[in-house]
């Protein structure tokens, strides 16, 4: 057993880095100086890294080395935060087998959301609100609010709370609507949107909207207020349901009410790492700053890693004020993904922390170094549909010439910011068959049958029966809820899977029912997995009255839910669930047979491609008349010419720049950009080394 | 941090049949102080139950296998719950439990606490499944195993077989304790390891002089010449090896294997397992071994760089310990609890006033106290008398009665007084099923004899008679009166004299106030009111003093007279010059009515002659066994009836007599 060390005296030496190299890099590869500098560093810093720099690998190296010193003598731990469970899984995959201790108490490797939930929001709710949070899920929360709000929104006795939200949407409706019906619709949808975003501030007891600093309604004896407060108390305290944003609110309150928690967290986590820091929103950034960079600065070492120029997920448009700049910022300038030519073109699109990207992907193929110049496709209304085809032909040409490896391991992708499904210029204009994906994992459906069908769909994933089981349970629980059956444990509030099973298990009278039920659940899941959802459905329908009887109820209010098979949702389902027609959005070029994945810039974040085609799209309008700007080519004219983005650039310009920065920094070998001829200023491109291709003609005629 | 309270629902004898637990009304709630806590009570009073409940939730450093069993459930109930609450967590302690802490108060006043619980439900004969959870709400979240390590208690079981714990053996308790100490912790490359390796090598050299261990880095062995001046090994020794080698050759074929004697490789832990603890070379008696064992365990509790719970659970501290030793241990525990015993500093500490790590090293809590918390159980009045009253918790019936100031009606001066005067004999009162408080030796001697005559064996009934030697009844009475909550089920009789002289006294001193000068009823009631309360009842002699009252009984008076006569004889034998009583009882009584007889007996014979009342009482007590006496004689209302009342009162709870 290793001797426990005091974390205060850890230093990272060359042998440590060699060890990390042996785990993370290929044989013969080494971490260069700028990476070593970061890995060795154990101070509070930001690491600003260019795309393709292998920053996460550098972070993993540091974690591997630190983990060798676990367990720390005083019982402290390491905190590693990222944004998605997928990201966390990737970390676990790569270094988990080498340092399993890192993933156990007292350390914590998880999403920022999970951290806030477990260490701040839940303790706050349990200590100060006297309640246990059962569900932290935005969709559930929103459904709950909306359901209850709808009941009371125009109720006289409750002061017609709907009136709080009506005015702001009435205005907009008047302006935008072309008909009475549409006006009503706009208002209704606006109210629904707002209502779902409401919350009760447990600090000053005011009612407001998330992200809106102005309170909607302050604490008072107003019947509106009382009704709404009751609504929130019901959802949060009785049911224990909140959304993600609420978790941050409760977390902040906890820190306010018990400030020593900050001290304790600093002691517990002397090392704090945040990956993909650019994706943090205001609340996340703020809460972490207040905990780990509080008054007592000698507490933790807090390192944030990411690329601020790639902040396309954060909802803040104006990001400048979110991140307090650190005194010390290390950089990783070298990109192992981009060739020098591509690196050169990407660099000017940086919105902050400008670094000259060092494109190091000069891999040798057949004696030629990788340095294909970027190409720009100019199209018009007629030829816009051929842009992707031209792109394919270009890649074929380069492959033939040996400039793109034949067995390229990364895909070819064609991307754009906007989908074009809102009538404005976007992906759909370049490729008609593009399907804006609608299928995301939903928790709630309108009808029982949908639960089963979606269950089947989910079942195709590796998890197998678990997801299907969850779906069936979800459907059954919904039946119980509609029929008003409450949680037997608490005598009020939702019945959850856990409490239902507990109740069945522990009530003697239901002992055999419990076993039967479990068996049925298994058989149904298995049958759905094997594709027989349609046959299972009647069995479940038959079973439901039996289940209800245990609670002394009959199928009544939920009958519609159970029996109806609505056409609308089912049509969608039909498309979603037949694997025969996969909506994978892959364009197959008829002429060359080459496959190109088509998607949004958001969908390819973090990816590596062999060749990328970035197609411009429409986003809002800045200005008027001929000088109006809506496309990347308009907002970022000078950047294509190699000039850095000015600090004074407007918010939407910066947003566009970030989008381009992300999109352009995907490919290893070939970068292409597509622009409409009306917006094309040839001088800006040619001067900076772009090769021009007119998509009116076939690609062969373009210069080399 | 310290264990501030234990709550039980449906655990062993503490329960209610309802399956629905009312979490606001535990079946037992025991508050503990930060320092020493002594659980006192007769057998089956719940002391062990309380200790066991704590062990089930927290477990012990010695790694005992403790589990909830179906028998632990209160008879018809199917669900039980145990909650342990910890307060006064320092930052170092709290940081281990951040995700489980509860908070009370806000802003500057926000204080963390930790609530740990076990909530188990049994279904038929299935194995019980439960986990240990922690959190501010009723359900809590599962506590990680490493976090639970910080809550382990140091447990000393009753009837310790100290011998087995202190001798060398695999995984001995001593080796566990030692390996946790700073000197040995995590130091695989310890000096002892090196010595052990050399030892192994030396053993091999016995058989093969030029043996050298592969991993030895020394150029020249420093021990070889010292131990083995002869090289090569003399024939006998070499022969052993050769013989063995020949056998091996036969079994495995020539030259494939080399026979070598060696010793098992040693990890530090194995080496420590070889240690035993003893005082000098002699075989120790059980008592000394026990002391040694306790010392070793407490060593564990004192290690400086431990940021977890420091709690000692000791059952029957007095087992195998001579009363003097018991006192010493208790004193040590009391002083440690109060922070008078310092704990050694961390190795590399410099005294840096800014950091004040010495405070941290010694696990100082908010009040600036160092030390560890102790909860111990005892049957010993010796211990009871030595412990501060506020550290005592009396276990009785279905309740516990902590004796701290918030719970009893005692006030601060009372505590101070009682601590001075509560000695081992008086400490009996904590263990009794009923108590009679008297002011002098006469009552102390006479009452048991009278009780026996009346058919109540006070010893068998577990009644204690406490002679406080003065009239400070109030203080003692208040011990048994609670500020709020249930009354202690222990009946307490305060037996005292009326102290108003009979009218005959005016013959001696005309100006003295005597019975006719007072409203006797009022006086009696007033006196009783002073001490009465809850289960404390006062029994006042109908007249003057006990001896006088005895005199008032025709049946008893003669016995008293004889007792005085015998007492005087005894005193004279000792050399004191007192005139013997020569006249007979009949003569003495001639011409007097009972009142006069009593007065003369008491005033003239006892008081005037300054005869020791104690000696008189001794003789009288013996005389009371007189077969001709019957209970009704004793129950005379004008005489000793009040004593019989008191006796009946304190034995009223006894059903087995």
Structure overview:
- The complex is a heterodimer of chains A (704) and B (657).
- By secondary structure, chain A is of the alpha/beta class.
- Chain A has four domains: 7-119 and 258-332, P-loop containing nucleotide triphosphate hydrolases (Rossmann fold, 3-Layer(aba) Sandwich), CATH 3.40.50.300; 138-242, no CATH class; 340-437 and 584-701, 3-Layer(aba) Sandwich (Rossmann fold), CATH 3.40.50.300; 448-577, no CATH class.
- In chain A, β18 (586-588) and β19 form a beta hairpin.
- In chain A, α5 (112-128) crosses α10, α16 (448-459) runs antiparallel to α17 and α18 packs across α19.
- Mean pLDDT of chain A is 85; it is low at 573-582 and 699-704.
- Chain B has 657 residues and is of the alpha/beta class.
- Among the domains of chain B are: 191-252, no CATH class; 413-657, no CATH class.
- Chain B contains 24 helices and 17 strands.
- In chain B, the strands form three sheets. In chain B, strands 1, 2, 4, 5, 6, 7 and 8 form a seven-stranded antiparallel beta sheet that branches. Chain B has a six-stranded mixed beta sheet with strand order 9-10-11-3-12-13, sandwiched between helices. A four-stranded parallel beta sheet of chain B has the order 15-14-16-17, sandwiched between helices.
- The two termini of chain B are 47 Å apart.
- The model of chain B is unreliable at 343-363 and 365-369 (pLDDT under 50).
- The A-B interface holds A 1-4, 71, 73-76, 104-106, 118-119, 122-123, 126-128, 130-132, 254, 256-261, 263-265, 267-268, 505-506 and B 91-92, 94-96, 98-104, 106-107, 110, 112, 121, 123, 135-137, 139, 141, 144, 146-147, 150, 185-188, 305, 307.
Which structural category do the helix and sheet elements of chain A fall into? alpha/beta
DSSP strand (E) fraction of chain B?
5-15%
Distance between the termini of chain B: 47 Å
The general outline of chain B is elongated
Order of strands across the biggest sheet of chain A?
Answer: 18-19-17-20-21-16-22
| Total strand segments of chain B | 17
Please identify, by name, the CATH architecture of the largest domain in chain A: 3-Layer(aba) Sandwich
Bin the strand percentage of chain A: 5-15%
Total domain count of chain A: 4
Query: How confident is the prediction overall: mean pLDDT of chain A?
Result: 85
CATH class term of the largest domain in chain A: Alpha Beta
Radius of gyration of chain B: 35 Å
Point out poorly predicted stretches of chain A.
573-582, 699-704
User: What general outline of chain A do the C-alpha atoms trace?
Assistant: globular
- Report helical residue fraction of chain A: 40-55%
SSE-based structural type of chain B: alpha/beta
Could you tell me the mean pLDDT of chain B?
A: 80
In CATH, the topology of the largest domain in chain A is named Rossmann fold
Number of strands of chain A: 22
* Gyration radius of chain A, in Å: 28 Å
């Amino acid at each position: 057993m290793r001797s426990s060390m005091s974390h205060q005296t850890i230093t990272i030496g060359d042998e440590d880095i060699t060890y990390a190299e042996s785990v993370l890099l290929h044989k013969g590869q080494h971490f260069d100086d700028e990476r070593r500098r970061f890995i060795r560093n154990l101070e509070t810093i930001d690491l600003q890294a260019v795309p393709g720099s292998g920053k996460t690998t550098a972070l993993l190296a540091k974690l591997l080395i630190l983990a060798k010193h676990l367990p720390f003598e005083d019982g402290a731990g390491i905190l590693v935060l990222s944004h998605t469970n997928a990201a966390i899984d990737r970390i676990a995959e790569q270094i988990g087998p080498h340092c399993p201790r890192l993933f156990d108490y007292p350390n914590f490797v998880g999403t920022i959301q999970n951290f806030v939930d477990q260490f701040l929001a839940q303790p706050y709710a349990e200590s100060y609100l006297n309640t246990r949070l059962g569900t932290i899920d935005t969709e559930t929360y929103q459904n709950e609010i909306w359901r209850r709000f709808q009941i009371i929104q125009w109720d006289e006795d409750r002061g017609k709370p709907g009136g709080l939200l009506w005015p702001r949407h009435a205005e907009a409706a008047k302006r935008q609507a072309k008909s009475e019906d549409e006006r009503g619709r706009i208002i209704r949808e606006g109210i629904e949107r707002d209502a779902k975003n409401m919350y009760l501030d447990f600090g000053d007891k005011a009612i407001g909207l998330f992200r809106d600093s102005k309170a909607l309604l302050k604490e008072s004896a107003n019947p509106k207020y009382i009704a709404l407060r009751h609504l929130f108390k019901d959802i949060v305290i009785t049911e224990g349901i909140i959304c993600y944003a609420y978790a941050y609110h409760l977390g902040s309150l906890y820190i306010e009410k018990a400030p020593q928690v900050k001290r304790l967290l600093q002691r517990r986590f002397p090392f704090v790492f945040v990956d993909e820091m650019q994706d943090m929103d205001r609340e996340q950034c703020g809460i972490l700053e207040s905990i780990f960079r509080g008054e007592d600065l000698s507490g933790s070492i807090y390192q944030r890693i990411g690329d601020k120029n790639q902040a396309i997920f954060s909802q803040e448009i104006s990001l400048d004020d979110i991140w307090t700049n650190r005194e010390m910022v290390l950089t990783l300038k070298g990109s192992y993904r981009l060739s020098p030519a591509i690196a050169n073109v990407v660099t000017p699109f940086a919105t902050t922390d400008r670094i000259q990207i060092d494109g190091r992907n000069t891999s040798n193929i057949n004696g030629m170094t990788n340095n294909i110049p970027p190409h720009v496709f100019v199209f018009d209304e007629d030829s816009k549909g051929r842009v992707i085809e031209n792109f394919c032909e270009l890649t074929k040409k380069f492959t033939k010439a040996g400039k793109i490896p034949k067995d390229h391991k990364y895909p070819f992708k064609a991307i754009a910011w906007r989908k074009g499904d809102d009538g404005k210029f976007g992906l759909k204009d370049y490729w008609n068959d593009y399907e804006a994906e609608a299928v995301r994992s939903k928790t709630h459906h309108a009808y029982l049958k949908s639960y089963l069908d979606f269950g089947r769909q989910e079942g195709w994933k590796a998890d197998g029966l678990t997801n299907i089981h969850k779906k069936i349970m979800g459907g059954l629980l919904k039946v119980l809820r509609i029929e008003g059956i409450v949680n037997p444990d608490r005598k009020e509030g939702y019945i959850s899977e856990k409490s239902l099973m507990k109740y069945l298990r522990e009530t003697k009278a239901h002992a055999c029912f419990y076993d039967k039920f479990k068996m049925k659940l298994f058989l149904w899941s298995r049958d759905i997995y094997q594709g027989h959802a349609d046959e299972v459905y009647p069995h479940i329908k038959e079973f439901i009255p039996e289940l209800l009887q245990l609670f002394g109820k009959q199928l009544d209010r939920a009958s519609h839910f159970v029996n109806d098979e609505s056409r609308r949702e089912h049509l969608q389902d039909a498309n979603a669930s037949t694997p025969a027609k996969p909506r994978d959005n892959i364009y197959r070029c008829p002429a060359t047979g080459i496959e190109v994945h088509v998607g949004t810039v958001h969908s390819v974040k973090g990816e590596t491609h062999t060749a990328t085609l970035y197609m411009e799209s429409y986003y809002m309008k800045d200005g008027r008349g001929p000088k109006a700007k809506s496309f990347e080519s308009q907002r970022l004219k000078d950047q294509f010419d190699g000039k850095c983005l000015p600090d004074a650039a407007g918010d939407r310009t910066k947003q566009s720049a970030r989008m381009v920065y992300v999109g352009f920094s995907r490919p290893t070998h070939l970068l292409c950009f597509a622009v409409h001829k009306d917006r094309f200023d040839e001088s800006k491109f040619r001067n900076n080394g772009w090769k021009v291709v007119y998509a009116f003609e076939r690609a062969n005629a373009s210069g080399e | 941090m310290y264990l501030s309270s234990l709550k039980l629902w449906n655990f062993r004898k503490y329960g209610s049949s309802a399956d629905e637990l009312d979490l606001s009304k535990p079946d037992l709630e025991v508050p503990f102080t930060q320092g020493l806590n002594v659980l006192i009570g007769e057998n089956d009073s719940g002391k062990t139950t309380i200790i066991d409940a704590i062990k089930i939730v927290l477990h012990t450093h010695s790694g005992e296998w403790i589990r909830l069993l179906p028998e632990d459930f209160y008879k018809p109930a199917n669900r039980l719950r145990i909650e342990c609450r910890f307060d006064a967590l320092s930052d170092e302690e709290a940081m281990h439990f951040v995700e489980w802490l509860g908070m009370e108060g806000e802003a500057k006043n926000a204080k963390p606490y930790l609530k740990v619980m076990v909530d188990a439900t049994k279904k038929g004969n299935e194995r019980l499944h439960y986990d240990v959870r922690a959190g501010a709400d009723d359900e809590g979240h599962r506590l990680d195993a490493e976090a639970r390590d910080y809550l382990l208690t140091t447990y000393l079981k009753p009837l310790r077989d100290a011998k087995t714990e202190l001798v060398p053996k695999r995984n001995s308790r001593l080796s566990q304790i030692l390996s946790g100490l700073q000197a040995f912790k995590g130091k695989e490359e310890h000096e002892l390891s090196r010595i052990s390796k050399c030892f192994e090598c030396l053993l091999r050299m016995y058989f093969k002089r030029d043996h050298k261990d592969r991993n030895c880095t020394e150029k020249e062995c420093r021990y070889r010449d010292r131990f083995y001046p002869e090289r090569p090994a003399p024939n006998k020794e070499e022969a052993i090896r050769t013989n063995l080698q020949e056998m091996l050759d036969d079994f495995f074929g020539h030259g494939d294997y080399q026979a070598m004697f060696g010793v098992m490789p040693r990890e530090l832990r194995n080496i420590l397992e070889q240690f035993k603890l003893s005082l000098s070379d002699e075989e120790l008696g059980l008592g000394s071994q026990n002391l040694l064992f306790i010392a070793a365990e407490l060593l564990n509790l004192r290690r400086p760089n431990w940021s977890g719970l420091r709690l000692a659970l000791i059952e029957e501290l007095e087992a195998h310990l001579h009363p003097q030793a018991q006192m010493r241990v208790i004193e040590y525990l009391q002083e440690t609890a109060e922070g008078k015993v310092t704990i050694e500093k961390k190795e590399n500490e410099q005294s840096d006033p800014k950091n004040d790590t010495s405070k941290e090293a010694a696990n100082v809590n908010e009040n600036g106290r160092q030390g560890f918390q102790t909860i111990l159980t005892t049957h010993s009045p010796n211990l009871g008398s030595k412990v501060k009253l506020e550290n005592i918790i009396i276990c009785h019936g279905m309740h516990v009665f902590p004796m701290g100031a918030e719970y009893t009606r005692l006030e601060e001066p009372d505590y101070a007084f009682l601590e001075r005067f509560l000695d081992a004999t008086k400490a009996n009162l904590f263990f009794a099923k009923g108590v009679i408080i008297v002011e002098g030796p006469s009552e102390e001697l006479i009452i048991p004899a009278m009780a026996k005559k009346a058919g109540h064996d006070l010893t068998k009934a577990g009644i204690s008679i406490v002679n406080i030697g003065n009239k400070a009844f109030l203080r003692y009475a208040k011990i048994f009166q609670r500020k709020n909550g249930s009354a202690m089920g222990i009946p307490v009789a305060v037996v005292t004299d009326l102290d108003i002289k009979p009218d005959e006294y005016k013959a001696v001193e005309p100006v003295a106030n005597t019975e006719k000068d007072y409203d006797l009823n009022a006086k009696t009631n007033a006196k009783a009111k002073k001490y009465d309360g809850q289960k404390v009842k006062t029994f006042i002699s109908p007249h003057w003093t006990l001896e006088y009252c005895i005199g008032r009984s025709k049946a008893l008076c003669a016995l008293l007279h004889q007792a005085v006569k015998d007492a005087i004889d005894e005193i004279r034998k000792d050399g004191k010059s007192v005139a013997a009583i020569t006249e007979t009882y009949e003569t003495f009584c001639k011409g007097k009515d009972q009142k006069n007889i009593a007065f003369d007996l008491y005033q003239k014979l006892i008081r005037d002659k300054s005869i020791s009342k104690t000696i008189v009482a001794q003789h009288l007590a013996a005389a009371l066994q007189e077969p001709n006496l019957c209970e009704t004689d004793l129950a005379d209302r004008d005489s000793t009836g009040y004593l019989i009342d008191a006796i009946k009162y304190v034995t009223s709870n006894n059903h087995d007599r």
